[in-house]
């Protein structure tokens, strides 16, 4: 194990490159990289983790390029490692947002959009509620610890400056992860959606059989009340499915990491 007293100029450059990789991952990772987290906290965490991990790494055999253009390419490769892993991690909460927006549409909240100050993106009420709930659940399940462990493991599998891109397999992993976004979002919201769709069909039948009844005055409060009730009832099953999504996220991150290791 090397100590900081023995660090050479090349190793200082390697330390800076490692910091670039770590900082990129932290900025893009879910929850940790949120705008709600102060920039100083994210920068401090990146510095702390880099300094903590760097002495435990085996000596690097990578020759640091002396040219500005070659060094910039080396740094860009490290940035791409962080972006790829962070993108895979961010899909977890995109699935929750997708399912929540489907619930909002069925409850009649689709037009009640506001701008989320953390993301500058339009967000519906149920999507905002589930985002807060599952962020807390993510932290309670130790999701931030899992992400830090993945970040540390990346340095063990992919030595600093020795990134090797396998474009084909990496593209397949990314396409599968993004392609399953809608289907997983629908499965996440399925318990609530099924109940709301059944009520919508029932209200449509009642509207046809009893035209004197003002179905809009009855249907909207009923769907909103049923929606909140079903969210409360289905929350345990949603949490179980969210845990499955977290495991899937970690597996996809590990797959990307293995595909980026040197040949």
Description:
The protein is mainly alpha-helical. It has one domain (4-260). The chain contains eight helices and two strands. It has helices at 9-28, 39-53, 68-107, 125-140, 143-157, 167-179, 181-209, 215-260, and strands spanning 114-116, 121-123. A hairpin with a 4-residue loop joins strand 1 and strand 2. Helix 3 (68-107) packs antiparallel against helix 8. It is elongated, with a radius of gyration of 23 Å.
Radius of gyration: 23 Å
**Main sheet: which strands, in order across?**
1-2
| Element-by-element helix/strand order | HHHEEHHHHH
- Termini Cα gap: 25 Å
| Shape, per Cα inertia axes | elongated
Brief description of this entry?
This protein is mostly helical. The protein is built from 8 helices and 2 strands; from the N terminus they run αααββααααα.
Provide the fold topology.
Elements: H1 9-28, H2 39-53, H3 68-107, E1 114-116, E2 121-123, H4 125-140, H5 143-157, H6 167-179, H7 181-209, H8 215-260
Antiparallel strand pairs: 1-2
Using brief descriptors, characterize the structure shown.
263 residues, 74% helix, mainly alpha, two-stranded antiparallel sheet, single chain
């Amino acid at each position: 194990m090397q100590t900081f007293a023995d660090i050479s100029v090349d190793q200082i450059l390697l330390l800076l490159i490692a910091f670039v990789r770590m900082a990129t991952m932290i900025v893009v990772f879910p929850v940790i990289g949120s705008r709600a987290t102060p920039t100083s906290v994210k920068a401090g965490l990146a510095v702390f983790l880099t300094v903590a991990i760097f002495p435990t790494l085996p000596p690097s055999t990578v020759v640091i390029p002396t040219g500005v253009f070659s060094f910039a390419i080396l740094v860009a490769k490290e940035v791409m490692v962080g972006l790829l892993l962070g993108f895979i991690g961010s899909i977890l909460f995109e699935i929750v947002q997708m399912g929540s927006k489907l619930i909002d549409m069925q409850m009649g909240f689709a037009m009640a959009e506001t701008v989320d100050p953390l993301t500058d993106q339009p967000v519906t009420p149920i999507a905002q509620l589930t985002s807060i709930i599952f962020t807390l659940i993510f932290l309670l399940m130790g999701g931030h610890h899992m992400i830090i462990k993945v970040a540390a493991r990346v340095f063990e599998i992919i030595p600093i400056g020795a990134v090797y891109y396998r474009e084909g397999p990496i593209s397949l992993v990314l396409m599968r992860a993004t392609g399953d976004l809608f289907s997983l979002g629908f499965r996440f919201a399925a318990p609530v959606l099924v109940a709301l769709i059944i009520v919508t069909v029932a209200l449509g039948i009642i509207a046809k059989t009893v035209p004197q009844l003002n179905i809009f005055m009855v249907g909207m409060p009923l769907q909103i009340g049923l929606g909140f009730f079903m969210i409360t009832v289905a929350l345990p099953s949603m949490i179980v499915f969210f845990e499955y999504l977290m495991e899937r996220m970690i597996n996809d991150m590990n797959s990307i990491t293995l595909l980026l290791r040197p040949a």
